[in-house]
Amino acid sequence: PFKPLVFSGVQPTGSLTLGNYLGAIRKFVALQEDNDCLFCVVDMHSITARLVHDDLKEQTRSIAAAFIASGIDPKEHIVFNQSRVPGHAELAWIFNCVARIGWMNRMTQFKDKAGKDRENASLGLLAYPSLMAADILVYRATHVPVGDDQKQHLELARDIAIKFNNDFSSRIEEAGLAVPLTMGEEKVNAYFPVVEPLIDGPAPRVMSLRDGTKKMSKSDPSDNSRINMTDDADTIAKKIRKAKTDPDALPGDVEGLKGRPEADNLVGIFAALSDRTKADVLSEFGGRQFSEFKPALADLSVTVLSPIGDEMRRLMADPGALDAILLDGAERANALAEKTMADVREIVGF
Ligand code: ADP
Ligand code: NA
């Protein structure tokens, strides 16, 4: 079996939101206690939707700062940016030849981001999930904490690993690189693990505060209801006060949140921020009005996010120190990636 290893990435595309924090970064912090982890700023992904950015380095530092300010230890684990480790792009090319065009065409994120003029989207946007699979598998990582929006991409990463393992199965064995893996009934010779997504928790997909049917996204600049990790206390409180709700009181149980996306979203946020379940939160707030619940949620949000925002600003004031952390991380990541790539070159026959 494969040694457990955690990998996850965040794009340097704008101010980090409460969605990124609860769907991803807060989970990273919890996972680092019992696992070896790599946390990556995926700058190569950020040019798939928009090619020219004036502040990519600054954005990259701010994601690293958010990781560290949230509690990730960059000495114990690896914090780095993708473009500094060439193995990601090299393995992605091989995966482009493993994956099928039909697989990519089915990705809902591609359809959303490409919009109507699909022929004019970048080839990189279509191949995005292949690079994402390479990000993970170049370390042969086994567990990937992400938000629910990434579920389909992770299924594709699993499909790529399975197809690579199948297509090259005798070469993997000949090279003495086979790891026995049981897939259902079948025993297979694997080189790549079939990754497990870690998507659980009470807020796997934080929704926009003005439209409970749309996800809160840092890449959507038109949504000014979103809570940023660096918002000050007044801004956070104001955004929560203005959040869309329905006129009813909070239900007493989770069943009662059905068909009430805004209520469900706010209760999920409260639960995730306090490491409780939604049922537990509703046992406290069931029957109360949003006029009572919102101030409690605002206080909790400020208590959790304010110290992180302050620490992010402190870290961002010393760009040289952040660059040194990222460089050290890239060197350690590169050493691991190079081992995998030496195997992969042999398996493919280069
Ligand atoms: P974004 O979609 O905000 O631009 P990324 O694509 O960089 O963010 O994703 C970084 C991580 O944050 C991923 O694990 C993604 O699933 C998670 N994430 C992004 N938005 C949300 C959200 N609204 N709720 C939960 N997790 C989210
Ligand atoms: Na995303």
Automatic annotation (TrEMBL):
This is Tryptophan--tRNA ligase. It is found in: Cytoplasm. Catalyzes the attachment of tryptophan to tRNA(Trp). One of its GO terms (molecular function) is ATP binding. Residues 205-229 are annotated as: Disordered. GO terms for biological process: tryptophanyl-tRNA aminoacylation. ATP binds at Q11, P12, T13, G19, N20, G147, D148, D149, V206, K215, M216, S217, K218, S219. Belongs to the class-I aminoacyl-tRNA synthetase family. It catalyses: tRNA(Trp) + L-tryptophan + ATP = L-tryptophyl-tRNA(Trp) + AMP + diphosphate + H(+). A motif ('HIGH' region) lies at residues 12-20. L-tryptophan binds at D135. Its EC number is 6.1.1.2. CDD domains: TrpRS_core. The gene is trpS. Homodimer. A motif ('KMSKS' region) lies at residues 215-219. Keywords: Aminoacyl-tRNA synthetase, ATP-binding, Cytoplasm, Ligase, Nucleotide-binding, Protein biosynthesis. HAMAP family: Trp_tRNA_synth_B.
